[in-house]
Specification:
Length: 94
C-alpha cells in the first residue's frame, strides 16, 4: 500500500530550542509535550486543550556562535502543553 506523500506540520520552535528547554527546571518534560506557536494576532490566548492561559516568560537563548535569540515560553499547568513566541513577534524591544 502506497500512502503517497505525507505532509508534516510542526508547530514547535527549532529543535535546538526544545533541547535547550529540556535543561530548564521551569518546564516539565519539554521533549515529550506538544509545542504550539502562540499567535497573539489570532486572539487565541489560552491553551487549545484546556482553555487556560499559560504564563509566558522570557528566555534568552545563546547559540554557540554567540547569537542570542529571545523567546517567550510557557507551559500550561493543567495539561502540560508548551507555548512559545519569538520576542520579535510581540513588538516588544525590552
Amino acid at each position: 500500500m502506497n500512502l503517497g506523500r505525507l505532509e508534516v506540520i510542526c508547530d514547535s520552535p527549532p529543535l535546538k530550542i526544545v533541547e535547550a528547554c529540556a535543561r530548564l527546571s521551569d518546564l516539565l518534560l519539554p521533549m515529550d509535550r506538544p509545542w504550539h506557536h502562540f499567535r497573539r494576532n489570532t486572539g487565541r490566548q489560552a491553551c487549545q486543550y484546556c482553555r487556560r492561559a499559560p504564563l509566558l516568560q522570557q528566555y534568552d537563548i545563546e547559540y554557540t556562535t554567540g547569537r542570542t535569540i529571545s523567546y517567550f515560553i510557557g507551559q500550561c499547568r493543567h495539561c502540560g502543553a508548551i507555548y512559545w513566541l519569538p520576542k520579535e513577534e510581540t513588538g516588544k524591544t525590552s
